[in-house]
Specification:
It contains five helices and 17 strands. The chain has 244 residues and is of the alpha+beta class. The chain has a single domain, classed as Sandwich (Jelly Rolls), CATH 2.60.120. The protein has a seven-stranded antiparallel β-sheet with strand order 1-12-8-16-6-4-2. Strands 3, 7, 10, 11, 13 and 14 form a six-stranded antiparallel β-sheet that branches. A two-stranded antiparallel sheet has the order 5-17. The model has no long low-confidence stretch (mean pLDDT 93). The chain binds 2-oxoglutaric acid and fe (ii) ion. The site of fe (ii) ion (FE2) has 4 residues, from loops. Pfam families: Oxygenase-NA. GO terms for molecular function: metal ion binding; oxidoreductase activity.
Length: 244
């Protein structure tokens, strides 16, 4: 069946298979969670093609100019393409129980509302009104330095990255990586294997480690290793909006 990611998302698989309990356990035990195929090959191609439609984006960043690495990304403008809006809402709904459990483990005085709409209304009242879903575009030699996507006081503790091309075929290198830092410990690196259409759910900034006395906080950063050959595009879903 033909899909049109712009007007109607192809995320039936996601709603069926993405179980909050499974995601929560993977985040705690492994540090991240890779989903099954969140988007079909056709949906990935359509999404990757949106990058050329300049009017869909509010801004563009040349990563080299701001010392973020090498490559380019664009933040979508509101209203988001329908498919991206629905993906963002669907992921939020699945992740919010995990976020609230996370807050309990870490002793954070935070509670996230059950729908993305409510969460964003709160963000907007705090002045975080700019949409943060983005597409990234990398060519040979490009890379994305380790970073955290914080855009103000309001934040959601997880974010999602969807791989839109075929690793090993459309590009080589360009691995998505996470690095965990914990006080008085050496850093731990996680290289996340992703095929086209798969999504990874990962901590936005604060990680959780089980310790003998319960849970402790870690700092998580993410990035992309250098693309060796070909081109790589990805879709990032960040749930909090950004300050103007
Ligand atoms: O291109 C990637 O895989 C990383 C994207 C990223 O930094 C993000 O979605 O926040
Ligand atoms: Fe990022």
């Amino acid at each position: 069946m033909a899909v049109d990611i712009v007007t109607s998302p192809d995320c039936g698989l996601l709603w069926r298979d993405l179980d909050s309990g499974v995601v929560g356990r993977a985040l705690l035990e492994q540090g991240y969670c890779v989903t099954g195929e969140a988007l079909s090959a056709e949906a990935c191609e359509q999404l990757a093609g949106l990058y050329e439609q300049r009017q869909r984006f509010r801004s563009q960043v040349q990563m080299q100019r701001v010392n973020f690495g090498r490559g380019q990304y664009r933040y979508f403008a509101y209203p988001l393409p329908e498919g991206i809006q629905r993906l963002r809402e669907a992921f939020y709904r699945k992740l919010v129980p995990v976020a609230n459990h996370w807050a309990q483990c870490l002793g954070l005085d935070r509670h996230w509302p059950s729908t993305l709409g409510e969460f964003l209304r709160e963000n907007h009242l705090q002045g975080q009104q700019l949409p943060t879903p983005l597409m990234l575009d990398y060519g040979p030699g490009d890379y994305n330095c380790l970073h955290q996507d914080k855009y103000g006081e309001a934040f959601f503790p997880f974010q999602v990255l969807i791989q839109l091309n075929r690793p090993g075929k459309d590009f080589t290198g360009g691995e998505f990586v996470l690095v965990e830092n914990q006080a008085r410990r050496q850093s731990r690196v996680m290289v996340v294997p992703l095929s086209r259409g798969q999504a990874v759910v990962f901590p936005n900034s604060l990680g959780v480690q089980r310790s003998s006395r319960g849970y402790s906080r870690t700092q998580i950063r993410h990035g992309v290793s250098q693309i060796m050959t070909g081109h790589r595009r990805s879709l990032g879903l960040i749930f909090h909006d950004a300050l103007k």
